[in-house]
Amino acid sequence: MSTSPTPPQPTDDSSSDARARRALADAVREIEHHVASAGWDAPVRVFALVRTQAALEAEPGLAGQLDAQVLAAARADDQHLTSVEQEGLPSADDLEHLLGGLTWPPTVHGAAVTVERVVLPPGAEEDLPTDPEAALAALLSHPQRQDVRLAVGVLRDGPSWCAVRTRAHDSDDAVGQGPDLVPGLVEAVRATLA
To answer: Region (Disordered): which ranges (predicted)?
Structure first.
């Protein structure tokens, strides 16, 4: 008995979930591009993500602050997101403590963060000194170190998206993207929405 392969099932790219994933990816790309335009050596930046249609309903005056293309996109898709950078963040010793201290009201549909890090290739960390100050000095002077900017966004109802840019390949067409490129940071941002 022979069987023919099952034909691929049609996908519904117009479903609410697919549009939410696409809107999140667009928002994270826009955030990363915005942060990149300011250059490197930047502090952590945090953004609330709100569904633009809902924000316009709650605050009609917002329409005067948005670009005509943004308004058109928001009117065409109820999943469209607007990012709102958070200023005056509480002081924290590190990113984990900063994120651990954040909570969002129900009107915020997601959150995003950008942070710069220094990474080494696999195995290179094994040669670092155990003393934290000496390890930092060795990391910063390591010939194989890479400076990266991470942009991670998560929606309250589940999807995540990441964008990664390296200083060595600092161009918009060289930004890596995907839903789970930085799983630890995805989970830390997700925890702020719980």
So the answer is: 1-22
